[in-house]
């Protein structure tokens, strides 16, 4: 599955926030709806798909459909286009095929490589480099991995052992920079610092999973008390930040950094990945996709906090950022706009926060810093690193930068917003967020404003408006092809389902055969 889905797991009924959170979210959602309508007035209906709005002078067409969980598009040296089907979503529960398909000019998708039994799903990222595909996925023990896949189906794992992937976030985008090195986006373990009740399926399968830092840090020692849901577990248990479920921490406790940390952009030599891997930047919650502009500036799209059980953070934004080598981007103690999460505006009702302890001493049920910043040599992130702020839960995913042929939009970053998971991501949400392609200027004088470029006439995926296949659904990957056109990989439709909770699964039903690839061209 697309890592985006994994990133959007969240609480069940017990995680619902209080009236203060409700009011703040309702106001934010009303503003977003007004902004969506304002953007719609600047966009024109597509001649091919009247439900879709985009700028005058551009057109959209569907070039492939009937795909199951597509996540990535790439081109070989001859200009042939390929799409990766993830093979599953959260924990391979959907029993779909992980494979790479060639998409011909007539829209026919032909299987080139079947990866069933060769990797553990899901494929989230794919790129072509030096005659082979490179993909991100997990292994059978749920460690995050990168593998090289030849067109004849030979699979060689070049990087493994990413422990944060034993959660709802796995490695995502994989791309090669102009320096010849490979860059991989890696999600953090969990939501906001703890392996909590949102991680039940993962903890039961991989109890050693936990978030990891890229550099040595010192903890403040705050623990949360949760029901012990492990097999045979009874009563409650304390869990600390950056620890496996059920492991408490103490104030001043040191945690070693890892060269394969989560919440990072990792970089390595693809010919010697294990020996050369290191964090390029860190402190992201769930880094999904990266891109470079013509000045070789790097940008990353990040899925921010869920207002979810464990350590619920009532954030207002998801972020797209300028990437500075070595920089820390604030997770788990700073919001998307780099304000401290301890600010009152980010606090849900106290009933949503579990009993909290500093070491073994009970303290107020509040949002506390989890890292001792001074002792760890960390400072509040620099706001100049913010490229643009999206609506919270809109889920900015795998972006790309427009080529010169795109006129006034050349060198702009185009970011697919996968969309929210409604009450799973935030139990108070009653409006859709995302489900569109956003545009952000990347020049040094850029305005840092997130503009709508492609969106449906009404907020939300087409299927939720009775128009499956006629509108944007769940865009996950945007790439500009050798022909200069924009290609959008649309994951397909799904919906929340309480029934799946009772069955012991994630409360989301994914629809096979609903994935699509769109092409957007600048009309002459």
From TrEMBL:
Name of the protein this chain belongs to: Glucose/arabinose dehydrogenase, beta-propeller fold
Highest taxon, organism lineage: Bacteria
PANTHER family noted in UniProt: LARGE, MULTIFUNCTIONAL SECRETED PROTEIN (PTHR33546:SF1), LARGE, MULTIFUNCTIONAL SECRETED PROTEIN-RELATED (PTHR33546)
């Amino acid at each position: 599955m697309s890592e985006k889905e994994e990133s959007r797991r969240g609480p069940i009924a017990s995680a619902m926030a209080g009236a203060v959170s409700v009011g703040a979210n309702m106001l934010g959602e009303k503003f977003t709806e007004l902004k969506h309508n304002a953007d719609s007035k600047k966009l024109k209906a597509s001649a091919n798909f009247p439900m879709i709005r985009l700028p005058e002078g551009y057109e959209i067409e569907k070039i492939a459909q009937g795909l199951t969980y597509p996540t990535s598009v790439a081109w070989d040296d001859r200009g042939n286009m390929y799409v990766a089907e993830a093979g599953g979503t959260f924990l391979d529960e959907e029993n779909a095929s992980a494979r790479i398909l060639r998409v011909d000019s007539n829209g026919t998708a032909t299987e080139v490589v079947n990866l069933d039994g060769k990797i553990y799903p899901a494929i989230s990222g794919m790129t072509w480099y030096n005659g082979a595909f490179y993909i991100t996925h997990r292994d059978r023990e749920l460690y995050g991995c990168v593998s090289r896949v030849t067109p004849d189906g030979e699979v060689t794992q070049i990087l493994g052992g990413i422990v944060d992937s034993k959660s709802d976030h796995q490695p995502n985008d994989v791309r090669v920079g102009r320096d010849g090195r490979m860059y991989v986006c890696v999600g953090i373990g969990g939501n906001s610092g703890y392996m909590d009740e949102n991680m039940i399926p993962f903890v039961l399968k991989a109890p050693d999973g936990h978030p990891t830092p890229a550099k040595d840090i010192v903890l403040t020692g705050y623990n949360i008390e949760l029901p012990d849901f492990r097999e045979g577990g009874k009563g409650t248990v304390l869990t600390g930040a950056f620890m496996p479920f059920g492991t408490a921490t103490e104030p001043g406790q040191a945690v070693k950094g890892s060269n394969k940390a989560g919440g990072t952009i990792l970089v390595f030599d693809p010919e010697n990945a294990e020996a050369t891997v290191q964090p390029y930047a860190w402190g992201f919650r769930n880094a999904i996709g990266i891109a470079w502009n013509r000045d070789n500036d790097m940008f990353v799209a990040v899925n921010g906090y869920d207002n979810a059980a464990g350590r619920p953070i009532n954030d207002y934004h998801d972020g797209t950022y300028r990437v500075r080598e070595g920089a820390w981007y604030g997770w788990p103690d700073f919001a998307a706009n780099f304000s401290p999460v301890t600010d009152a505006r980010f606090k849900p009702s106290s009933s949503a926060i579990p009993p909290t302890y500093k070491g073994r001493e009970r303290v107020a049920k509040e949002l506390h810093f989890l890292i001792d910043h001074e002792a760890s040599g960390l400072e509040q992130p620099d706001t100049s690193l913010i490229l643009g702020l999206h609506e919270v839960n809109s889920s900015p995913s795998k972006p790309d930068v427009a080529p010169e042929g795109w006129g006034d939009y050349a060198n702009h970053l185009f970011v697919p917003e996968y969309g929210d998971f409604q009450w799973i991501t935030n139990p108070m949400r009653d409006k859709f967020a995302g489900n569109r392609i956003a545009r952000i200027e990347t020049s040094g004088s850029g305005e840092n404003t997130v503009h709508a470029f492609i969106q449906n006439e009404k907020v939300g995926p087409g299927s939720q408006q009775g128009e499956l296949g006629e509108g944007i659904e769940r865009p996950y990957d945007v790439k500009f092809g050798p022909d200069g056109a924009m290609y959008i990989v649309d994951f397909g439709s799904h919906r929340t389902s309480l029934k799946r909770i009772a069955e012991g699964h994630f409360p989301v039903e994914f629809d096979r055969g609903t994935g699509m690839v769109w092409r957007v061209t600048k009309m002459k």
